Amino acid sequence: MDINERLDDTHREILGFFPLDLLDLSNLDGARIRIAELFGATPVELPKTITVDDHSVDADDGHQILVRTYSPPTPTGAALYWIHGGGLVLGDVAMDDAHCAAIADELNIVVASVDYRLAPEFPYPTPLDDCSQAFEWFVSHSDQFGVDSNRIALGGGSAGAGLAAGLALRARDRGTAQPCFQLLRYPMIDDRNETPSSHAITDTRVWNRPANLTGWGAYLAGQNGTNDIDAYAAPARATNLAGLPPAIVTVGELDMFLDEDITYAQAMLQAGVPVELHVYPGAFHGSDTMVPHADASQRWRRDEMAALRRALDLTD
Which SS3 state, helix, strand or coil, does residue 248 take? Predict the structure, then answer.
């Protein structure tokens, strides 16, 4: 699919500024440099009212997991635990500084963001373990942040949303700390890459099929697409979704994850999980943050913030 033909002028203009090889992962080190340069090109100005603190959490293997918190002056007692994207092989906690601080400021809640280890250096289950252990730490220390442990939502974008979905499944099954809600923004959840939309996007300026195959291959040590992958690693494989927290699933029409995300939302609904699903016409993977002034992106943000307000029992 040539996504340029399906974009409005605003989206097409912004996408035109991106390097043609931005998300060509044939050289992963090079891609990491390009992504770092892209996110570092513009200084991030955070709301002056938000306090940013870094915390160190002990992983089971002795690694120190970074958890960054964004706190308003008088938090409402609710929180969002956020997991950044990057295809399981790219990114860090800093890439979502502006996003997390803006949510903390708008909703007057604490946002905690985890800097999990990346594949291929650290394949599954290490990234999920990092996210899970840091989440349990945040819940157990919720009083320290003025947060009610029963009012902590779990969210992420892309690979981060896939990790969030896996975390929710594992927490349900193990009876560990439970999130009250899932915010799943274009989640990366199916390692099999068999849907029509998973074949449709090859433009290397956005998340694309070759990049997705590389990301899953790194995360699952080359076992992606085989029969030995569990649902915590690839939540689309889950056969029992009952008992999960309510969720909102958001995805663009031109996203390669479109089919798997719709299917997962439907499966949760069929299992009795309250789910709100939004598909945004003319939006590509990540365009909500890359083209924030577009009408679709504005609606996208309002939809997610409204869902969080309801889930966390916040008042305007």
Answer: strand
Q: Please state whether beta strands 51-58 and 64-71 pair in parallel, antiparallel, or not at all (unpaired).
A: antiparallel
| Domains with residue ranges and CATH for the chain | 3-311 (3.40.50.1820)
What is the DSSP annotation of 242-256? TTPPPEEEEEEEE-T
Dihedral of CA atoms 262, 250, 225, 135 in degrees, nearest 10, equals -130
In angstroms, the CA 250 to CA 258 distance is: 9
CA gap 96, 237 in Å, rounded: 28
Q: Residue 153 corresponds to which amino acid?
A: A
Report the distance separating Cα 267 and Cα 250, nearest Å. 15
Residues with active-site annotation? 158, 255, 285
Output the six-digit token pair for 96: 């979502």
Whether the CB-CB separation of 156 and 130 falls below 8 Å is answered with no
pLDDT tens-digit series, residues 204-255: 999 999 999 999 999 999 999 999 999 999 999 999 999 999 999 999 999 9
| C-alpha span between 151 and 192 (Å, rounded) | 34
pLDDT for position 37: 87
